[in-house]
Amino acid sequence: MDFRSDNVAGASPEILAALAAANGGTAAAYGADEITARLEARFRELFEHEVAVFPVATGTAANALALATLTPPWGVIYCHEEAHAAIDECGAPEFFSGGGKIVTLPGADGKITPDAVAARLTERGFVHHAQPAAITISQTTEAGTLYRPPDLAALGDFAHRHGMALHVDGARFGNAVAALGCAPADITWRAGVDALSFGATKNGALAAEAVVFFDPDKARELGYRRKRAGHLFSKMRFLSAQLEAYLADGLWLRNARHANRMAARLGSGLVRQKAARLRHPVEANEVFVELPERVIRALDAQGFRFYRWGGAEATCLRLVASFATREDEVDRFIAAAEALLAQGNLID
Amino acid sequence: MDFRSDNVAGASPEILAALAAANGGTAAAYGADEITARLEARFRELFEHEVAVFPVATGTAANALALATLTPPWGVIYCHEEAHAAIDECGAPEFFSGGGKIVTLPGADGKITPDAVAARLTERGFVHHAQPAAITISQTTEAGTLYRPPDLAALGDFAHRHGMALHVDGARFGNAVAALGCAPADITWRAGVDALSFGATKNGALAAEAVVFFDPDKARELGYRRKRAGHLFSKMRFLSAQLEAYLADGLWLRNARHANRMAARLGSGLVRQKAARLRHPVEANEVFVELPERVIRALDAQGFRFYRWGGAEATCLRLVASFATREDEVDRFIAAAEALLAQGNLID
Amino acid sequence: MDFRSDNVAGASPEILAALAAANGGTAAAYGADEITARLEARFRELFEHEVAVFPVATGTAANALALATLTPPWGVIYCHEEAHAAIDECGAPEFFSGGGKIVTLPGADGKITPDAVAARLTERGFVHHAQPAAITISQTTEAGTLYRPPDLAALGDFAHRHGMALHVDGARFGNAVAALGCAPADITWRAGVDALSFGATKNGALAAEAVVFFDPDKARELGYRRKRAGHLFSKMRFLSAQLEAYLADGLWLRNARHANRMAARLGSGLVRQKAARLRHPVEANEVFVELPERVIRALDAQGFRFYRWGGAEATCLRLVASFATREDEVDRFIAAAEALLAQGNLID
Amino acid sequence: MDFRSDNVAGASPEILAALAAANGGTAAAYGADEITARLEARFRELFEHEVAVFPVATGTAANALALATLTPPWGVIYCHEEAHAAIDECGAPEFFSGGGKIVTLPGADGKITPDAVAARLTERGFVHHAQPAAITISQTTEAGTLYRPPDLAALGDFAHRHGMALHVDGARFGNAVAALGCAPADITWRAGVDALSFGATKNGALAAEAVVFFDPDKARELGYRRKRAGHLFSKMRFLSAQLEAYLADGLWLRNARHANRMAARLGSGLVRQKAARLRHPVEANEVFVELPERVIRALDAQGFRFYRWGGAEATCLRLVASFATREDEVDRFIAAAEALLAQGNLID
User: Fold this and answer.
1) How far is D41 from A282, CA to CA, in rounded Å?
2) Which one of B26, B315, C144, D51 is most buried, counting C-beta atoms within 10 A?
């Protein structure tokens, strides 16, 4: 009954099994092994496009490496004001880029638009201003919502017209692909995305992400950046094996679909109650719901775990479903909330 | 028959088992889980001292985080001219420290002395010079040799008298403890070591190291540095579980002793041949041996794998034994070298 | 008739004369000369407080050095959304601090309040968030307005209660002191200011500013930062001589009062016209006035020089008076605007 | 009688006069003024080549900006072990480049050769190693000697064959041109030099240097770097005016020739004494002479000023002549040394 995040879940058994399978014999270090070699081909196939793929262990590393590659030290990175890269990475993009500047933008349901970027766009070539370099969005967003292909295409087009790159923080990329029912290409290079942080950790891996560039030429320096940031694993096979298993047999989409289904069930269960208000539409595996303070406290006391969204006194809960969330957990949460809200109606 | 490095080995079964065991249920993310909580106590006990412990996944990350914590951006880090931190980390210490300067020093068998540092010591307080900040040594060294407690105490004392800290790159720390038969404390804080990169990856983990500070006060900012470098794992339990298993039941010393024994066997087997010359004494799990070019080529052709040390044309081999190296592999290498050298004697 | 900025003016004759006077004989380099020695005492007297003083040549250098000293690489600097440090320094604070983060805040007439900072304050000790480190304000503000002592005390108090420092970008500090008629201490340390970028360039020097810290202990590393940023002058006497002459005989306040008077004359002259609207009150040496597009074009055609504020299509002008602005220039501008506006009334 | 450095001298009267002349009227800020516009043409003519020119105020700034432009954060800069950039800039190149690595090389009389670089060249494309990026030399060297055009051509050729750039720290570039009697082009682009720190401060300016790139395309980002480092002057005319006067009417070469002549006189005067040994040939404006400790102390007591070279106990003096050094000062030093050495002969 732990809805704090999808990273409180463990790992998919298939992925643990892949680690064991990868353990036989010796293997060349630092990515010169066979599993890693297969991985690049696998990603090429997955995205129906040339790619450069750099496995790393955390989403912050993936984002920071990608953004630093796209941004000079005097560059501006535009993103939503709730973006993980802006808020939750303790300045990783600034660190990796050598002092880049993040400009945060408002936007409904966690999404930004070309207009929002345009309103803050710095003047290209004017030496006093940090220079437009990249737009980064989260897919799914920090609000659990989705950018559709046309949303992305508009951003990609705007970015390129202004000499910027478009990056996607795909910590929950699997949830997005599963929810949209599209090809991975449809919400990446086909829509103008230049680089993707492809996340697996939140959706069943132990610790595995991949930086994916759709123009390998633009990623030529990324290997140096990864190494000097301490993100090149010596026993790389154990990182690559996670990603390989994640993609094999559709595990990643199976896991994501399950998580999305659990969130949808949770959201629709809660919204039947008049006193529960969804802050954002439930489009993937996250539910943002406003509940009375009294109900939040009682749920907490009953052992449900979740984060208040917006600080210790906020009455909006973020509830995240993972590949491991069970239907009965969801139903118990709904039932508990329903009961508490019903009491409330008597009291109020 | 792969002697390229101890990182070509896989993982100890005990450590893989620990991952599986850690996989049950949900766990608080980012190190707030129970396994990580136990780990700090375990390290305290291991070192018989207060410690601050920060698990990370790579040795480069451990070194760079430790050194950046000990060094201002205008600091000088002194180390041996073959130090991993100086040569093999693509500038990670410079990156993490915000532009620190590494000054490399000569020294027999991979070791530096206070005199070597003194010869290059910059003037404290002179604003034109980068300022003395830290000495970092590798234990075991890049030459497979060992610093004894008095060697360390001399360096620690020198460092502290000059306002510097002493850091140990312990990528092969287990091999050192096993070889010296001492307490971990004897070659760390008791000898003046301020911070240790405690390595497990090369000795049986998949990817697990720990930055250990013996004065937790000095490590107060390290958490921020780790996070913004992308080295804070969300599913931290899988990192901590590796370290816990590594230390449980003496696995780390068992693995290290085996590797050391294999290297000793290899070294003493080779040195029986007149034409094979050891470049450094074999004190832990590495053998540096000079062989005729013709023998090296033949060994390569027979499928033995190793690195030439000093470039593609060097005739010194580095042979590394790991926890997984088998006695028969060692013996086959010795026999092959012996046979080739004997032929050589006929030919020459 | 050039109102573009106070930095289009040349230098005060007194300051040029001081350069010539400083030119006799040899002098120890890098600040060990006698003029520089006198300067620290002069600043101590000026501020009635212990100070550490670091002369540099540009305001961007002064700001970035001060902020980097107050902010760890993972720190947040809060400022107004129009702050020079945020907008016009091409990321200097981010560069000097090693990747610090600037969070910009709204605020009427170029000023921020504790409440505005509080609304964006990151959580201290939460490792995912960049940490609150400093508040920086401009005095006079980018809107040509003033923080009064109580405004500053409120910010200083808020900053210190939250473990932050308060920095003042005093590129136009002389204009502020002259306008407020207060002691320099009243709007610095007495109001909780920790560090000041004391500007002279805009008010009569060729290129001279000083970073002033009111707690010299906190500035101990600043000398290294200045040197490695290339801002330690070898012939420092020529930098110090400018500052000495600037402070001697009240030149700085004389210059500032004149500039302020010219701006006041300009503002009150313009505001007599119904069609001219002041965007901000004129409190120091800058006038922000909204005029019809047709009038702006005509003024430009008549040879008046100024910047549109807010981009090439804005109809708000920033008019800056300097120590060298003449009354007749001001009057001609007013007369020209008046005439054009009168025509407009006929036309409209 | 002050031979500490050429930066203890003041400024040439012609340059001070140029400041006064530049002071009339208003001028566009940040380098959009007329004097700066003329300067680029003047440098083009001087070097008989397209150039991009960036005036700055210090040699450290010029070096660090040039090197950061030529070097990625993971780059290696090769230089002599006494290079100013390596030793006397408190890590400026590391700071500006975002963590570049300086590798210092031995070399007689302050000079390095392609062979010295080759001995330490890191492996291109090997991700573990910082990558070869630039060679920087000082002309004149830190030993007061000269690289001849063929020396430079060899370094330039080596650099380019290995994908590196060649940079010249020309803090004493005028002394080199005067001594070699060559065209500036002969020891810059014609010999393969990519970028030059063109120094004027030590040879008569107050504080003025210029970063010169011979391929303007390679300097496209330098304007951003200069701005964010705080080295873009608002009243740029006062920086450009110094450089213009420095180059006008051959002032720079007149000053340099005088300084060189004074050093030659000093060197040949001293070397007539058996007990005085020149450490390096006197080729420009510096003399390195070994004298008995007793003589050094007596010279110091007589009021001569100089630096011991190699620390407080070294018995090698560095004596630097400037444009302002007078013949009688030189002769008095020689006479004093001669007398003291003669006494010594009696005593010894």
Assistant:
1) 63
2) C144
| Residue B311 burial by Cβ neighbours in a 10 Å radius (0-12, 13-18, 19+) | exposed
Q: What is the number of residues in chain D?
A: 348
In this complex, the chains that touch B, judged by 3 or more CB pairs closer than 8 A, are A, C, D
Q: Nearest to residue D105, comparing CAs of B258, C206, B104?
A: B104
Pairing relation of β-strands B131-138 and B165-170?
Answer: parallel
Whether pTM exceeds 0.90: yes
Q: In what order do the strands lie in the sheet with B131-138?
A: B52-56, B209-213, B195-199, B165-170, B131-138, B75-80, B101-105
What value does the CA radius of gyration of chain C take, rounded to a whole number of Å? 21
Q: Please name the member of C11, C29, C92 whose beta carbon is closest to the beta carbon of D5.
A: C29
Average pLDDT over residues C268-272: 95
Chain D CB contacts of C10 below 8 Å: 22-27, 235, 237
Please answer yes or no on whether C30 and B73 come within 8 Å at the CB atom: no
Query: What residue spans of D88-134 are helical by DSSP H?
Result: 92-97, 114-118
Residues of B in contact with A13 (CB under 8 A): 23
| Nearest-CA distance B172 → chain D (Å) | 19
Tell me which chain A residue has its CA closest to the CA of residue B93.
A228
Q: H or E element: which one contains C76? A: strand C75-80
pLDDT in tens, D247-283: 999 999 999 999 999 999 999 999 998 889 999 999 9
CA distances from D239 to B95, C26, C64, C195, D29 (A): 33, 22, 21, 28, 12
DSSP string, B22-69: TTSS---STT-SHHHHHHHHHHHHHHTS--EEEEES-HHHHHHHHHHH
- Assess whether the previous peptide bond of D140 is cis (omega < 30° from 0): yes
D121 class by beta-carbon count within 10 Å (0-12 exposed, 13-18 middle, 19+ buried): middle
Q: What letter represents residue D169's amino acid?
A: D
Q: Are A287 and A329 in contact (CB under 8 A)?
A: no
Mean of the pLDDT values across residues D43-57? 98
Residues A292-302 pLDDT 10s: 999 999 999 99
Which residue of A lies nearest to D230 if distances are taken between CA atoms? Answer: A128
Interface predicted TM-score (ipTM) = 0.97
Rounded to 10 deg, the angle between the B237-247 and B34-47 helix axes is 30
Distance of CA A59 to the CA centre of its chain: 8
**Mean of the per-residue pLDDT values of chain D:** 97
